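Q: Is it fine to ask for two folds in a single conversation?
A: Yes, each is treated on its own. Send the first.
Q: Here.
A: Result:
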Amino acid sequence: MAKRSFNSNGNLKQEPEKAKINKETLAEALSLFAYIKPFRGKFIWGLVFIALSAFSTMVFPFLLGKMIDAAAPGAHIEMPTNSMATENFGLNLKTVQWSLNTILLLIFLQLSVQTIFSFMRIYLLTEVGEKSLANMRTDLYAKLLSMPMGFYSEQRVGDLSNRISSDLSQIQDAISFTLAEFLRGIFTLIIGLSFIFWISTELALVMLAVVPLIAVVAVVFGMRIRNMSRKAQDQLADSGTIVQETFQGISIVKAFTSEPHELSRYKKSIFSVVETAIANARYRGAFVSFMIFSVFGSISFVMWYGAGMISSGKLSTGDLTMFVIFSAFVGGTFAGFADMFSQLQKTLGATQRVRELLRETGEEVEIKSLQSSILHRISGRVKLENISFSYPSRKDVVVLQNLSLSIQSGEQIALVGPSGAGKSTIASLLLKFYEPTAGKLYFDDIDSKEIGLTELRKQIAFVPQDVILFGGTIQENIAYGNPLAQTHEIMEAAQKANAHDFINRFPEGYQTLVGERGVKLSGGQRQRIAIARAILKNPAILLLDEATSSLDSESEQLVQEALDNLMKNRTSIVIAHRLSTVKNADKIVVIDHGTVKEMGSHEELMQKEKGIYRNLVDLQLDWSTIEK
């Protein structure tokens, strides 16, 4: 599970889970470099500028040392050379002497060149990272949209959103920043160590004898501190969860006078954070104290040893200055590798999770046609032949068993029965959210498997009980039924859905924002928007799943009128618990335990004294009498 922490706004966020670095995880990460391929030219130039930037940065200490030697006449010593390794085009870098003005000019030239190199590496790698990530996000989002309903029944929406947001951002950071810093660190390390040994092999060996011990202790301390920091973050997240739960259920808390209990829970959680933070402070204090003593002690020791070499004529003051600055670069690079290693682990973890989705193929993915035209124009005849079905997540539970049903074009069918009988499952099969476990499904005598998902779903409209509206305007939500519809067509659909009048009462009219999931509208208004959306789609088959069950009497009447307009001249399949809404159906089908138990008109079914339908009607009549 991903680690939890809080972002700058105080909201709970997910910290990317780390993965072990091995051959498999590295191969997964390298596979994503296919997204860099279209921009490989800029990527390669970015790597070149990383190397040039690192080299130009390391020239600065060299020029600074030469400036000190130039400022102290006689401080420079003549060093015999036994090979051409230190000479470049006849120039001996150890013995070369420039004036102060020349060195200052060279420093500004070096800084100017370094500025250009740094700008180009950041610009190029950021462009490559952003464009690669945009393509990666698009592919991942398209893959998620292609996954069947069974996939979403087993996944948490928050986890999927996290993969698109934080996981891909982690990969982007790796391409744009972590990779660049890692390569820059490698170049800096190689160049820095080369300069250190070039200045003085003896002093370099003295310095390297001290650094490894400090590095090992620093890594051990650092791992312990990071682990305790994560523990504190998790504990703080738990306290935040307590606050969130308490405020969400504040009416229950007050009704049960549980304020002292909730306060006790919160205090216990908060003080556990305090204990962890104090323990962590001890480690951080010891770590900082050790590092101050070790780093400054090492610098002092190296300076002392170098001063002795200056006294004996083995080293110049400028060379010692160069050595100390180069050593600082090398030490800083070593320290940065620990954090880069941690970032690499997070990136590999994010890559694994993203690749899991991108690898999904075959039967697990819905294959949709991108064509807008409909090849098989259906009239609305539907036939279910010996259909059996179990949900993928509950294969041991049979929802439908050998169910057969024929529906004629333009016929209004009502599906009724107890909760869990399988009514909504039939709607899901008609929309091909799932495939039957056994049996055949036909549309106009054509096997459903021979009809593409896109063209089939374009000819079916679905109005659920819990209407989902998207966070745009009313017009955009109605146009979801037909994105190419003109404004007057949208208004006509709204009028048929009894929605036009209440829409015009809003100051912004059709441009009114509905809010997240349509929270700014009442239940009846949302239903009528959904009906207008279905009318605009002009489907051959209409599926209504408890479309009026949660409405008051006035809203139900308006919605029912809108539904009557919608069901005219098209095959309509109505799932309802309120039996008063299905009396006028051409055929009522009673489903129980996944099979068709009864079928007929309202009058025919009411004549069966011990029938399921009549029993359901009698129960509802009894309850309505009690309510009155």
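Q: Second one now.
A: Result:
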Amino acid sequence: MMNIKAVPFLLILFIGMTFSVHSQISFDAQVSKKRLGINERLRVDFKMNENGDNFIPPSFTNFLVVSGPQQSVNRSWVNGVSSFSKTYTYFLSPKTKGKLTIDQASITIQGEVYKTSPVEIEVTEAVEKPNDPNNIDYITDENIQLVAEISNTNPYINEGISVVYKLYFRNPISITDVQELETPSYGDFWSNKINIGRVQVNPRGSYKGEQYNEVVWQKVVLYPQKSGKLTLEPLTLNLSLQVPSNRQDLFGRRILTQGQKTITAGKRELNVKPLPTQGQPDSFSGAVGEFDFDVILSKESLKASESFQAKIKINGKGNLNLFNLPKLNVPNTLEVYEPERTENIKTNLTGMQGSVEELYTIVPQYQGKYPIPAVQFSYFDPKQEAYQILKSQELLVDVYDGPVAGIASQNTNSIGAKRPVTEVDSSFRFIQLETNLKPIKTAPFWASLKFWILLGLPFVLLLFAYLFKRFILNKSEDSSSVKQRLAKQLAKKYLSSAKKALHNQVEFYEALERALHNYLKAKLKIETTELSKAKIEQLLLKKRVEQQLAKDFIEVVENCELARYAPGSAGSIQTDYERASRVMAAIDRQL
């Protein structure tokens, strides 16, 4: 029997889970602009992230509905997470000037009624050049932005800053391809680009308080190398777009058209401050950031003629590879070799982090106690805007069991003294004066071991070649045949999985593209890394496949790449599936 005290807890848990589910649903009203002239047109989008029914638009008082509602649905699948959006679009023309309000719209989602918030619009006098929401240039200008986000526009010399280039775009625009036309050279900076891997789309990005699709295109860390006003050159991209046109199909939906758009982040200026000269230590060598400093000895006690290492280590955050480490000063009686520099640095958006080391190898010649003087390191901290000085401890090395410096010099000076001459009789006693010679017996060559080795060597080589072909080459051929068979089976598997996913555009084209790639691996015995379009066409023509058939195969692959980012219909999906099967069968017959 259930405990009565547990019932309120379960009820609260159920209500919390229900609230969590509903809190994920959004239904918003978005406008193309909140201030426009009375002779301009306004675009209004009612957007939801779950499919709903019974959409009731506002009354649009003081507005004339030019066109609408136009309905669009977008589904995407990014990193295993699916997203859905459904939009009702209206184009309005204001009837009067002043502050006008677009009332609430409502829709029913999962049995619950959701409403948008009212949107206030300011209508002014007529403008000279009214913007037409149906114009392609106006649509792209209003819905695409390329922004350079700079972490600090007023840094010090050698203070790290980050620049993140973000591309924002929103409905009704979809981007099919991006090419980088101009890349900043960063001539007055030390720069390091951060690898962002595969470009991903964040459908919940925000730009100026409005929701956009966000793409992080490039990340770079900069360290200015001189003071004054420095200019960041612009990043320029060329975008291939799909934009709604003025034409409509039989169902009243706007027909998409292809377009090109060149967009730039624009030049940005930085005001770089020089490092202060007042209070700058003599040991300062250009380090800017936050650091720790230490001097470490591998041994503090050793025998003469043995070696030990002294390590100067700096770790922290800043321009780690842009300054010199302080030098190590030791007594002249110690032999010091040139230091070995080691860097362990990682760079992210906050700058360089890690450590820099210089390792000195030192060899003492005489016994004694040798002091290692303290080493001083200074750096500039941009957060505190002040110089910091770090100093290591004075160390002592004890060298024992070796010559003493004064006695060794006396022994060296006595090398030239006269030595007693040995007697002649005892000087050559190591020479053997009597001999005992014996004749050398020689055997015929055919009876020697060398003869039999040379005679049997060809037979051994023949046996080795036979075994090599039998057990290694054949095994490799069998392995290649097995791989080919597996690739064929995998291609059939993905082709069948593509057929099962005809209802889902993204999953269908991903499965179809994998099937095409694995089919080529089976037929042409190549790896996936070799599957560039030019390479595919070259290999097919080399295998005497008809040129038109090779081009058909390339077009199917390109359709897969394009269709994953562009909306399509069930008819086009079925056509692509049948065309892929037909092309694969035709190539199979010719091969």
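Q: Anything structural to flag on that second result?
A: Two points. Residues 14-22, 408-428 have pLDDT under 50 and may be disordered. The two ends are 72 Å apart (CA to CA).
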